[in-house]
Please model this.
Amino acid sequence: MPTKLETIFTDFEAPESYRGRISLDAQKCTACRTCETVCPSGAIKITKTLEGYEHTIWHNTCCFCGNCSYYCPTGAIFTTNDFHTIQRQEEKYTDTHVALIPFHECEDCGKNFIPATEALIHRSYPKEEVPEMLTKSCPECRKRTTFERCYR
Model:
């Protein structure tokens, strides 16, 4: 037998423009921490791990202001029209969305780094051919390579 929580608004759909739960597209995220900085309720935390950056959203803390999605430079974090936020007391602190933004290894020096995403690259190079080093080299190696090309 379904509980009252499971039957509330089962046949209701929120409009597309409704500002509901936050979601993240880890492929677009660069772990720049903009969303973490602008979140007034502290619902977003980005932590460095051995594999990359762990992006955590605590839905029970979120105030649904939309600052994170508004200021995200890549559109990686966004609001959905999902309004299902009712939870049982025992589930209150487990309602999280955790995603890993993995490190990539620099082809020149082997150092771990987070490459620029497609969205950022196409904002910087809208019509030009994208230099391969933007996705395969860390920032230090890109600086060194650019300097060597300019001054040789």
